[in-house]
């Protein structure tokens, strides 16, 4: 089963190889794929960080402040 990325990537890399030589194809493909993976990782972190922070705050609620006992000085 092929994916749409294969249908776009293969002809694009074929055009790069035809225009710039055989070594340009794998180098270009690796650079584009690496850049895409970095982009996906950054977007994933940006989306998931607020959700993770909310889960942590819900799991560890802030304790209520401790009140001092009333003074009973009879002097």
Can you tell me about this structure?
Helix 1 runs antiparallel to helix 2 (24-59). The protein has two helices and no strands. The longest helix has 36 residues, at 24-59. The mean pLDDT is 84. It is an all-alpha fold.
Brief overview:
About 70% of the residues lie in helices and about 0% in strands. With about 80 residues, it is mainly α.
Name the descriptors.
mainly alpha; 2 helices; 75 residues; membrane
Task: Note the topology.
Blueprint: H1 4-20, H2 24-59
Helix pairs in contact: 1-2
Using the alpha-carbon principal axes, give the shape: rod-shaped
Low-confidence stretches: none
Alpha-beta content class: mainly alpha
String of helices and strands: HH
Total strands: 0
Radius of gyration, in Å, reads 29 Å
The main β sheet shows up as:
none
Strand content: under 5%
| Distance from first to last alpha carbon | 89 Å
Helical stretch count? Answer: 2
Mean pLDDT: 84
* Helix proportion: over 70%
Oligomer: single chain
Transmembrane segments: 30-51
Keywords: Membrane, Transmembrane, Transmembrane helix
Protein name: MFS transporter
């Amino acid at each position: 089963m092929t994916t749409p990325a294969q249908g776009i990537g293969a002809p694009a890399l074929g055009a790069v190889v035809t225009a710039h030589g055989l070594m340009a194809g794998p180098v270009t493909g690796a650079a584009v794929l690496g850049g895409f993976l970095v982009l996906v990782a950054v977007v994933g972190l940006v989306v998931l960080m607020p959700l993770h922070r909310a889960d942590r705050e819900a799991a560890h609620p802030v304790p209520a402040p401790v009140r001092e006992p009333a003074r009973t000085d009879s002097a």
